[in-house]
Known about the structure:
The structure holds 2 protein chains of 2 kinds. By secondary structure, chain A is mostly beta strands. Chain A has helices spanning about 1-10, 15-25, 60-70, 80-90, 285-290, and strands at about 45-55, 90-100, 100-110, 115-120, 145, 155, 180-190, 205-215, 220-235, 240-245, 250-255, 260-275, 280-285, 295-300, 300, 305, 310-315, 320-325, 330-335, 345-350, 355-360. In chain B, helix 1 packs antiparallel against helix 2 (about 30-45) and helix 5 crosses helix 8 (about 135-160). Chain B folds into 2 domains: about 1-90, Rna Polymerase Sigma Factor, Chain: A (Orthogonal Bundle); about 90-160, Winged helix-like DNA-binding domain superfamily/Winged helix DNA-binding domain (Arc Repressor Mutant, subunit A, Orthogonal Bundle), CATH 1.10.10.10. By secondary structure, chain B is mainly α. At the A-B interface, helix 1, helix 2 and strand 1 of A face helix 1, helix 2, helix 3, helix 5 and helix 6 of B.
Amino acid sequence: xxxxxxxxxxxxxxxxxxxxxxxxxxxxxxxxxxxxxxxxxxxxxxxxxxxxxxxxxxxxxxxxxxxxxxxxxxxxxxxxxxxxxxxxxxxxxxxxxxxxxxxxxxxxxxxxxxxxxxxxxxxxxxxxxxxxxxxxxxxxxxxxxxxxxxxxxxxxxxxxxxxxxxxxxxxxxxxxxxxxxxxxxxxxxxxxxxxxxxxxxxxxxxxxxxxxxxxxxxxxxxxxxxxxxxxxxxxxxxxxxxxxxxxxxxxxxxxxxxxxxxxxxxxxxxxxxxxxxxxxxxxxxxxxxxxxxxxxxxxxxxxxxxxxxxxxxxxxxxxxxxxxxxxxxxxxxxxxxxxxxxxxxxxxxxxxxxxxxxxxxxx
Amino acid sequence: xxxxxxxxxxxxxxxxxxxxxxxxxxxxxxxxxxxxxxxxxxxxxxxxxxxxxxxxxxxxxxxxxxxxxxxxxxxxxxxxxxxxxxxxxxxxxxxxxxxxxxxxxxxxxxxxxxxxxxxxxxxxxxxxxxxxxxxxxxxxxxxxxxxxxxxxxxxxxxxx
Lengths: 363, 160
């Protein structure tokens, strides 16, 4: 009886026609499809447009990264973290105006594995962007103020076939500057796969942002402004990294098998490299590939939920490292730090099973 | 790698399944739409073979849950109200509307297993495999979730 009623209720819950249309249209986008061979085409640049931030007139650009990483003050940063962000924020300061709308690519920050780009948008003075409905999300189907997702692209020259920003989203936040026609975006770039074989944040690697139109509304989109804005830029990554292992160690991790089953198993950590925005872990060996085939080894996850790893700072503060993504073929997992890590202040990494990875003493 | 024809067939069959899983997890229609698109983008780009259609379905649900989990961890994510979305649904009778609101008012840990059990008709063992939690946990969550639903609906009846 309950089942019948439940099914009657949830049969009403369906994805929108627009979502159906977009998904079914994927088959026409064959050029974006991954090849089964060739690592250059395997990279999916999952770039996430986030954080529609208020612009404070005259505010230093790096302050927006401080705001962003602190989740607008919800997770206050230490003075060391603020200084790290300010020291590593890269001024770009490019701007383009089209049909009265100006997009400025203001600054970037990267640790060589993850990158963030800050943009600001200035609409004509009579446009009130504060009236745009609030929403959150990270793809391109929001009842929000966005670039046109089908055409807007973020590409990295190392991966011309795959570096497409197909899905874009944003989060609206209060604008405290009194100017209703200005907003900021922060672009969060996480190359999902095979980044170990490339260096997308190398200073010699060019990126291109092609921004088309501004739209709002969902599922039917209304064009707010037409135009195209193009930016070429490169990252200047922080080169800070610490290798944590001299020799392989064993730890317990959740192994996600292709069969759909998962289990806690002993996994050999081959290397662990800590950078300001996260930890890259390589595990296993060629022999393990078959066992770990298809799905991932999710460090920091248990069978009953997350058991994060932590970066334990010298002052005792613990910063969680959450499992973010991995690649079973390359046998790595990436764990994202909840807030940026000042590597000189990290005392050790605490694994889920209590194992401690000490930070090597620098000579 | 799936052919375009296979992808289309699976999409037509499972878009709404993925959407419902995401909606149950996130309680946000707009986020569920986004998750659904991203899950199928991943399926489209997946180049490993699937053993069966059921394998594809479970893969989709599992990826959807992982995407939801990742989304809720994102620095910028905030939960949204689902009431506006609920108002767009047309239920045959008020009891169905009450049930929808009661389900969505449950804690997240109960919503997804209840959906997988009562809608997709997975067994507790299958749900445990999909959600990567012990079977005993699934049983507890189903039992506790139903109990909370019963209480909630009784309170609604009492207030009518």
